[in-house]
Structures
1.
Amino acid sequence: MMRTLLAVLLAAATFSVGGCGGSQPDSSQRALAPGVAAPAIDGQAVLEHTKVLASDEFEGRKPGTKGEELTVSYIVEEFKKAGVEPGNPDGTFLQNVPLVGIQADPNTSLVFRKGGKQQRLRFRDDVVAWTKRVTESVSLDRSDLVFVGYGVQAPEFQWDDYKGVDLKGKTMVVLINDPPVPDTSNASGLDPKVFGGKAMTYYGRWSYKYEMGEKMGAAGVLIVHETEPAAYPFAVVQGRVAEQFDLVAPDKNMRRPAVEGWITLDRAKDLFALGGQDFEAMKKAAVSREFKPVPLGVTASMTIRNTIRTIDSRNVAGKVTGSDPALKDEYVIYTSHWDHFGIG
């Protein structure tokens, strides 16, 4: 999971040095002369560190748990063994990161309505949803559903899936990944000049879809899950029913959509049928610069109740001083994340 808010200055090369064991000189003494290559990364050492961090003892490394304490302590000790210096201005390795944890009550459902017909989606089985708003509860109350294709605004590709639509108070239904634009010179491939071809760009990421919901003032964002374009099964999405953490924001994230979530492909097809549309036909139509948002004529209703807590998590920061005195005040930053989902 990409979680930049828990960035850790933790390069694989640093770990491989730590895996050699024994005392190490400080980083200024270990600085290499220009043109001298650093030791190659020791794959076995990296594997050993991975085994430790991924072990059951570390309980999935969830923030605010015993797993965080073990993980942070392990990284600090390995930094010290490798001769890495503390990276914080106060001379320490640790930086406090205030986080807010939001746990959605699973006793809820999502209801689609059109006229006298309705479809009820079961939480976790059919829909996984949450809110980033730091509040006891949020609701969608008969919010109009609008299909926005892949939900992309990409001026560099002359692509805008939001042409002529006002989404304020409405709920977006959006596809995962980038628009798969065919390559005119290769019938079986994708155009590498548009959205990177087969390589997913940030426009295809689930996080981008929710960010666009915020930008457009939408009340809700529902991503249609498909295993191949998402690159993971719905079981991975179901893991998000656990407590979620975010940075503490002055506005308590009230600018975000009230509800963010995923629905299964089967329930999406049912939704489109309820709205008198064919899902596959709409999906095909979305792979075009000419695509325009399609109101589905269906409303969504849902209430999510939350349990909220705040914790102090930690970043781990270390530094290795370079050998060039003219460049000693310039930094190359390596980041990674130490956290994961905890016990599922």
2.
Amino acid sequence: MANFGRAFGLAFATVIALAQTVTSSSSSFDCDCHGEPSYDYIIIGAGPGGLVTADRLSEAGKNVLLLERGGPSTAQTGGTDLTLFDIPGEFPAMFGSSGPTNWFCGDIDTKAGCLVGGGSSVDAGLYWYPTDSDFATASGWPESWTNHTPFTHKLIQRLPSSNTTSPDGVRYLEQVANITSTILIPKGFRNISINSRPNMKDRVFGFSEFNTASERRNFRMVTHTMVTSLARNGSTIVGVHTNNTALGSDGFIPVGPDTRVVLSAGVFGTSRILFASGIGPLDMIQFVLENPKTASLVPPASDFIDLPVGMNVQDNPSIDLVFIHPSIDSYGNWTDVWQSPRPADVAQYLKNQSGVLAMSPPKTSFWQAFSTEDGSTRFLQYAARPGFNSSKGLLSNDFFNTSQAFTITVALSTGAVSRGRIGLTSTALNAGVLVNPWLSDSSDVEILDAAVQQMIASPSLVENLTLRTNLTLLQSLLSSPTSELGSNNWVGSCSIGKVVDENTLVMNTTNLFVVDASIIPSLTMSNPEGAIMSAAEQASSKLIAFATFHDNVVLIPTAPVPGPALQVVPSGSQFTVQEWSITNGQTDPKNMPFFGQILSMGTTSDPDSPFPDGTFTFHCGRSKSGAVADFWNNNFNSSESTFGHGAGELNFAFIGTLQLQLQSIDQSVRATFQSVGFAQGQSGATNNWWFGQEGGQHRSGDKLQIFGVDGFNKPISMVFQRGGNNVNEVALVQVNLSNSSSSVNTL
């Protein structure tokens, strides 16, 4: 982790100022929550995904409870002044070189952060804005996620980056950057401000970092609270099991019908909670069933939800190349930076937060694209820093001048195809790696090796530069990959499109969402912190839209025309529901559709109109999905709707029996039509209505002729036109009766 800028970026430690009340490191819980307060959202995990989501949802006026397993980090969150998390230069001490390590999750076999800020509080400040490729369909994202730009801009407005984090504008210990520049420029690299041109990631290099957030009354954070599992009633979450008895009896938090639960506990933490809640592969749920403390909390087997949780996992495979050069100050390899930092640097930092300690060890980062024989492209990210990691540097036992050592980390990123699996490793419910995700693909090995060989040749470009990495050990690692390749930049265990849908709703559930690194389907171009936060910005906007149910009204005009024309009479007209499809999570739990449900035609209340329109009201959300469109297309072909073509995405669709009461001056008709469909789609910011019938016939002018019987079981047909003067209209324009050779028109 110290080598490649750990999974989620120290940057986000600054965001946690949004917490209204947080604990100090000596207290257990921060609020008295007896009396079952009402929350719109319960968010589990205060990492970068959870914090952004909590921030945006509370900003939208939602009541938010944020639960964090660990304790505070920065002074903003209740930590003591000048913690390891407040001082960028103390980053290496977080891993035990000289400081404590109690903020790592003891039951996960990787360095997962259990504290406010999550992994982002134990990072090297490598905060890169996401590229377009990070959210491309080629990377596994749905089409609806590809326009990340407005959400990334929201992130940048809240958390802008900086090339220099020392207030005096000086970059310290820059000998490594100078040598790296000497190596790169002859190879065609350009020095740019990386975050000013995030999509330029071939032969570029630059420097890194971050900033701020806010507080709200409708936001509450409780730390030192571990969520063990979620209580389910079928597909709906009805409670949260925690270890915090201040939150309820036995730590149980009831989840009301209007409350949504958002998992943001990270790749390992989120997966474990899902397993413990009966969601995921059976072999993982079996571990939970064999644990005497958790077995009784698992829902019945009939309610298990089989999803590939823990599969599809990726982490950047990386190699540390250790060099020595007489110009380098390795800063004592950072081993005493916590207990015995250099006095002059401490004095400078205490005076105005400037100097060596104001900057994290990585001094420069650079990227390069490589092509494979099959024509695909893989990207490499590199990071250079003074010092080295003796457990990852592939060093021989021979001695060398460690005071002159620096490291260039070579990591494979976008385009890598190797994947693995994480999950539970025992009935104690510890989590870890089950199948290594590093270099299982031969092309991944080939490209990483090519990039490493390019760097190994660097001493020829810089006088007195010497490589200390043992090449035999290096080749052995490439041919037999182990966790030594790991960068702890985990993504994918709850991949979007596989475990969660495009609204981040866990598939086959009604009110459970995931917003963290686990939904990211592929490795990002750079350290994923920026992509995680941009994804959380976008997910938050979807959650806000998702949480709103509407009375979706389709209008059936009733006004007659001069002459003996029939008109629709709302009284006695109805639609009986037989089938339906609603985008996941858009069904109001308090107003569920059901087979045989009768929707009586209502009327608009227009005092100026003697003939108010008839109305059918469908109560649900307005979030579109391809699944609803598939339902529509499977029931109606392109010639059986007013549009005359198939649907791409729809918000909802209902199919049933339409009964219309019609009358004119001298006659009354009751007509019945089977297999009629109403659906709502979107065009830009406008919702529009689809109207169809199995066996109906599309007519020019956005019309559909439907066929049924009258009250005497005689054939009758009608022609409806979509839109009319209102996108919410489905207007009757023609009636064909069996006892008349002519058509009766209402327009």
3.
Amino acid sequence: RELASPSLQQPPAPLQLEDLAAVRYEEGQQQGQHVVLGTGGFGRVELVRYRERLFALKRIRKDWVVRTQQQEHVRTERRVLAGSRSPFIVGFFGTFRDRQHIYLLLEFCQGGELWTKLREMRCFEEPLAVFCCACVVEGLEYLHGRGIIYRDLKPENLMLDQHGYVKLVDFGFAKELGRGEKTYSFCGTPEYLAPEMLRQEGHDFAVDFWMLGILAFELLVGRPPFHSADPQQIYSRILDGIFSFPAFLGEAACSLISKLCRRRPGQRLGNTASGIRGIKKHRWFGALKWRKLALRQLEAPTLRLIKEVSWG
């Protein structure tokens, strides 16, 4: 049975900002306050309701956009989201603005942030990590097919929907790129940066496959392979390309990560002649039914991570 994806269902009519009602806590110390799903330098993400349906409203401060010169990133995020129709990309339902803020109305991912689940469990069992990475592969395949590099893959940018499926969020660092082209901007999270980005040699879609390898390692081990309190140390270790696998990691996982995290982009799994099919055919994903995943017909092993919460 196919699980309906909220990201592919539009609201019944065009919405206005005034149509959205803030959801408030009904009990506890925060009773009466707005439910805040996330915060950052940009502002915050609040839970809102239209009729009986819940949404996430990303509120971006205009003064922050100007001060940090994020105008192009905000425009890119809106453009990528508005053009996406994939169950592995967070759903987008419109943009609003007032004198102080820009608003993005997004799908509410009831399962919460994957990063939070990882911190609670310290590391994931292999079936959980396989499922999460497979969802990410589907999302990357969709984006790459549209000529878009993601460039900000990490557990903090992955959300679980109510069925336990993983969705990519936050597209401020995404980049539209033609085949054969390269881009030279420097962006992303230090532990996840690919060597070619650090060397500023120009990079392309291959950086997403490097980041997928880093993600798989972090989900299985509880930390990224290149880590340090000092970003410069992280960069040096990435450029050296040397890291070790814990003894408890299986051979298939080590093989996949090693092939994704090759320093030369042309040798990286996903960026060779077999393309992203090479990743899907790797033995680490051997038991996964890709067709059923794409149709959301698999029962997600991540379901047990989701706590039932009523928002009234």
4.
Amino acid sequence: MIDNTLKILTGSKGTGLLYLVIVFVFFFFLLTRPIVRYLKTLSDGLMSIASGNLDCRVPITSQDELGVIAQNINYMAEQLQLMMQRERQIEISKMELITNVSHDLRTPLTSMIGYLNLMKNDDYQNLEEHKRYVNNTFNKTQQLKKLIDDLFEYTRLTSGAAQLSFRRVDLSGLLEQIMMEFEPIAHEHALKIEKLWEFKQVYGMVDVEKFVRTIDNLLMNALKFSFKPGEIVIMLAEEKDHIYIAVENQGEPISREQELRLFERFYKAEPSRNDYFNSQGSGLGLSIAQNIIELHGGQMGLEYREGWFKFFIKLPRLGNFQVGEWRGKTAQG
């Protein structure tokens, strides 16, 4: 058999066949060499990404199957890079949270320890001064409780553990009730509350407890930073695609940087103010309010113009509200 094959290849016809085989092998290597080289490039890119170089991108030289593989490798690297950035941001946020909480807890605790030591050592001149120490200590405990409550609420809202119970509510009536309860506090601080909407029912799907907390936070924010005497205006309107609610007040002007950072947790636009209400603030009120509205499928923002602050809320109208899009929430009719 082998002898016959050699005779064929060494014959005249066999010589031509041998040339064809050689030419085929030559062109095969010539054509496949770029593919092999490109596969080596893809392999090197994958190894580089696997070793931690997430900035690595492989070249895309064609739109065939190998080009699709290259695109997928680059997409994988981009997603890994975004994931790592998010992880780093979460770690930074955790450290900032610990730092801010430690500072905000230490401040009232230090004052409480100071006042308690004075009373423990009978270091007061008369009963009036003793009462003042007791009142100051009580105020600091209230501040501490509010900070812990706000921190707990903020953590629940941002961790996905919050359970919201939605039901159909007349927002007009609910806002009027909130205003009536808030009016005595506003009156004590020379503030008048005005409402701007028609006497009609506006229905929305809300978690009543969380929604009331949101409006309370906005009203307390307006109370702290309004000019006195002054007024706080509450607006309600039913737009084509959403329900619009706003709380407006006039106060000290702020910078563009302060405006952009107002919804950041623990951020206080006027840390130099030393009034009682500002000292009670946790710096979490607006962040909590914004998170609650986002869990309702809405949005919250600020329109600011020359000392006028308008914190607005946009909630989905009943026809646009779909509870099924959000996990961990229930709806009641």
